[in-house]
Structure formats: structure tokens, C-alpha cells
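Narrative progress, year one. The postdoctoral researcher (J.K.) led the effort to move from monomer predictions toward full complexes, under supervision of the PI. The following entry was the first complex the group processed end to end, covering 662 residues in total.
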Amino acid sequence: MSGDKRNGWIDELRREIESAGGENGIERQHEAGKLTARERIEYLVDEGSFRELDAAAVHECHDLGMQEKKYLTDAVVTGYGLVGGRRVCVAAQDFTVLGGSLGHRHAEKICKVMDLAVKTGCPYIGLNDSGGARIQEGVSALGGYGDIFFRGVVTSGVVPMITAIMGPCACGAAYSAAINDFVLIVKNTGKLFVTGPQVIKAVTGEEIDAEELGGAATHNSISGVAQFAAEDDRHCLDLIRALLGYMPSNNLETAPFADTGDDPERADSDLDALVPDDPKKAYDMREVISRVTDRDSFFEVQRHFAGNIIIGFCRMGGHVMGVVANQPAVSAGCLDINSSVKAARFVRTCDAFNIPILTFADVPGFLPGAAQEHGGIIRHGAKLLYAYCEATVPKITVITRKGYGGAYIVMGSRHAGADMVFGWPTAEIAVMGAEGAVNVIYRKEISDCGSEQEKAEKRKELIAEYTEKFASPKIAAQKGYIDELIKPSETRARVISAFAMTRNKREHRPGKRHGNIPL
Amino acid sequence: MRFRITVEGTSYEVDAKEAGGRIALDIDGKEYRVDVEPAAGPEKPAVHNPLPRSADITAVEHAESLPGSAPAEPGEIRAGMAGVVLAVRVSAGDRVERGDVLLVVEAMKMENEILASRAAEVKRVVAGVGDRVAAGDLLCVLG
């Protein structure tokens, strides 16, 4: 038999695989403003690098008419490819085939490629676009979801896992995303929820459309489920590529170095005047971050959620660091439930993947109020404290201004295990603010004063005394809680030097099954 | 910084120093002061990402704003924290641009500027200077 004859059917099979969704399906996908699964993968990976696996898969369901509807790939395209020359594993659900519905074979394919990611130590990327469980397959479909969830958990912290919601992702499927390190949602087309609008209407009577219930805006700004909102499919895939540039391929590697050409010794004199003299005046912490880190390297994560804390990746002298920073310009930079949880998750992400943590602290305290207390600020704030103390990657902290009370301890302080702490001249570290402190310490002295005017004067005098004594970084530096008091313009050089010093540090903790973070 | 330059076969020793916003050139012992300006705008820095792939990556910016579902773009501006209104910078009928200061609320030892999240007309101002507001209280309404 000649080679052509022997191999001819392979070409035919490949054609059939490519067109599994049919012309109409592809057209409808495009009309909805979406790329097809194959187009998405092609755009995501380096040109020509994708190798598909299990393309010949078909489901094994013989019930409810499904025996007539067998399509190659079983509605998901899986395989591996290169992103910036580094290997990744991908599973892209194909909405053009059976609505991207998840049956048993479909799930098996995803599990196989997740296993491959773990075995070979490369990131796993899921591009979700699926109508949900293939109901005709019944419990096998459910089992398939379960297998994916289980792998997601076992894989967590081994290789980076990223899920993009590029179409519907409902019910249990939502959890396969939630378990991952990063969730991206495409505006208008990506929908993520556990129970959809119809179910909600039937059960609670609430009327809400799918976008408002579980679209990009909702999950990026209200629920905190997603870290990124994308304008469209291509933007979403660009964000994934950019994100991967800051992540190591697995937990045994460090994130890739990139020569940014930015001088490690660069001193930015504008920083010296950035913090206002009046501690009641806010400033933009993003300005600090962008001036200290390698030029244009800051890649913010979860920008639209809990703006009182800023998280993201940056490069310092070319090396990747995770940034956690209070934002005085939003809610005074206080710690509340949402900002604590946002930062805690990010600190743990960094720690899991050998990414050192750079903290800029300017925190007036935890937000007071019954809503916060009843909402569980104690256990949620404890997550951030826990995450910082638990992290054994290099931790470098710069205290730019306020460090008050318990929030000071939480924000990457020496006590929470920071390896190097720098203080700006504007730093003020104290149990509480001057006014509050004076009212407590000198209550009697103040009430003993005769007139209201005398009281006010006494209070003013005592506040000045307290401010002079405690609202400064000097005592903290004397005690070694701050390693060095520095000029703001020197921050970049100092942090890079501290990072070089601590890069190979080893920290040993008592053995345990795992800690018990207050979830 | 020292250079050796050659002009039409003649070679000169040049020492360039920055001096008061100008550049002082010392050419074979004679000093010249020259004004220097970059010819074009600031050079666009490359995105430092080891993922070369055409120009796409440089375009990776966050979604600037989120789509118009009610929660992301509220017409009602509410207090994020309990505090005291220090200043009201707008009145009903004013046009505001995104980022304009609407009110200042002192809370958590900070004068917090409440900014307009988009360009709009101020429909109504509810809070007044000196008012004590609780988290979630209505401060003003944008059209």
C-alpha cells in the first residue's frame, strides 16, 4: 500500500476535526462577538506551536437521542503550546459543538491535559465557553465536573492555573474557575454564576439579567471572584500572555527574569515630596509604585475591587516581585473585609510561586463599624495576617506613612516576618492616632481643666507632645522594627539591594499537615 | 562625558556636561553652552515582558472602566465610610468630569476626596458641610 493511500484518511480526519462545529456554528460564534475555541488558542500561543490532543474523542452516550449527535473533539479543544517560548497546557471549550456542553469524555480530556501540566510543570489555561453539563449524560457529566475540581485542588500551588470566562460558565462549572489562581472575564460575553437568572427568578422572585448577575463588571468590582476584566476575546488572551510573563512555570522555578533596562540605582527625587505634609491629605500610592518599580513593569491585579489596597506584579532590576500597597486615596487606605481578603489571596499566590513580596504600607487601621465587625472583619483580617506570617518568600516592606495599631502589624511588618523594613521620614508608627490616644491616656487631665477652651488647649498641647514622641519612625528604628530610615528617592535602590540579599533565603517552619487559615 | 568627533576629516576632543538645564560642551578647550531639547516626544518604553509577540503585548492595558451595569457606574454617590462632610465642591446643575472632586469626607484620620466616576451633571446634592454620615449614606446624585 502506498504512503498516500495509507495516510489519506488522516487528512480527512483532520478536516473533520477542524469543522466539527460546522459553518453555521462558527458563524454564530462570530456574530456573538466571540472567537472560536481554535481561533482563541491560535491567538494565545506562539504561532504554529499548538499541538492538539484527543481530537478524535467522541462521547459514549446512547440515550435521549445523543447516539445521533456525535462530534469529534466532544466540544473541547485540548493540547499544549508555547507562550513566549514557554510551554503551557490549554483546554478551550468549543461552543460551536453541542454548545460546549460538558460530558464525560469532554471532562476526561480536560483532566488529561491538566495532568500533563502537573507532570511537566507548566501552567494550565482554561478557556471556558460552555452551556453547562450535558444533561443527557446525567451523572457521568457531574462526575466529570468533580474530576476537574479535584484536579484543580490538587494542582493548586503546583503550576499556575488561569481560567478565562469567554462565554457562559454556570452552576458547578463556576467552581472550576474559582479554584484557579486567576479568573478573567470578557465583558458582555463572559457570564459566571452558580445559579442563573431563571432559577433565581423561580426561587426568590428576583429579576436580574445574566450580565448584571455574573458579568465582568459584577465579578471584578462587587464579588471579587475575578481578577481581570477584558474588553473582548483578544484583549483577554493578551492579558493571559502578559500575566504568564510574571509567573514561573511551576512552584520549583522562579518567575522569568527580563532585562528592563531600568537602572537599579535610579533615584527619583519627586518621591521625596510626594507624601503631603498634612497627614490628613491623601496621595496616590500608584505614583509611588510606578516610580519605584522598573519603568512600566507594574501589572495590576484585581484593579476594580477593594481599591483601598493595590496588588499586582512588577519587576525590580528585572526580577519579578508581587506588590501589596495600601491606597490612601481610597477609603483612607484602611483595611476592611474586602481589602484584607484581596491582599491575603495575592500574598499566598506569590508565596506559592516563589514571588517575593514588596509591601508599601500606609494604613490608618481597620475600618470601624458594626457592618465590618458583624461581617467578620476579625476572621477576614486574620487571613491577611496569616498570609503574611505564613509566606516564606523574601518580604520587603516600605512604610511610607501611617502604621497604626493591628493594621501596622498585618501590613508586612517586621513582626509578621518581613526580612527587610524601610521607613520613610514621614512614617508614623503608633498604637493609634494622636487624637484618639490623647483622649484615652489623658482623659482625667483633660476633664480636670476648667473651661471648654482650657480643655481644648490642653488637648492640643498633649496631641503635639504625643505626635512629637510617637508619630515618627524613630522609635521603631531604635528598636529594630525598621532596618533603615531612608529618603523616599532612595527606595528603589534599597529595595533592589534588599531583594538581592534575601533572594536565596531559607526559612524553616515546624512540619505540619497544613496550617489552618481562618477561612 | 567625553567624546571624540570627526568633522570633515578633522578630529576634536569634546567634553559634554550638564549645566543648569543646558549642556556645556568643551571642544578642544573652548566652552560652548547649548540648549538641547528632545526632537520628538518621550520615547515609548517597551513593556518588560519576556513574551515577544508582535506589538500586541504593549497594548495590554486593563479595561479602563467596566460596562454600564448599575453597580459599577452609580448615579448615586454614597459614603464608603462613616465620617464628617468637610466640604461640598459641587452644586446641583454643575457639569463634572471624571475624576473631579464632588465632596470631601473626613474619615479614618483622612480627608477623603469623593470623585466623580464619570462625566455627568450633578442632579442633587444631599450632604451638607458638617453632616455626620454613615457608610452607605447618600451624598449626591449624578445625572
